[in-house]
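job 3f2a | input accepted
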Amino acid sequence: MACSLVTAAVSLSVAAAAQTTGGTKPPGTAAGRALDRAAGTDTSGAYPSQRDGTRANPPGTAAGRAFDRAAGTNTSGAYPSQSNGTPGNPPGTRAGRAVNRAATPNR
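job 3f2a | predicted structure (107 res):
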């Protein structure tokens, strides 16, 4: 029993030492940090410069911003000038406005 406790204590201290770098433990897990580096995100908290909305990383995802550019929307939050109801994008959808025009004669 005593041998098991000593073995467990040594294992914990070795594991803790393996996770520390320079005496401090970096935020997140190694897997989370690797994901952040690959995806350009900050889910682990280790890369604050990659947070959403910073100069280096505008709001939304790259795919969301691409969709916004193609569709003229602002689902990502990166294109507020394309928000619904602005001069460049009147309320509703183009299809909805067409239906309204067709349903309302002599408007």
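job 3f2a | The radius of gyration is 26 Å.
job 3f2a | closed
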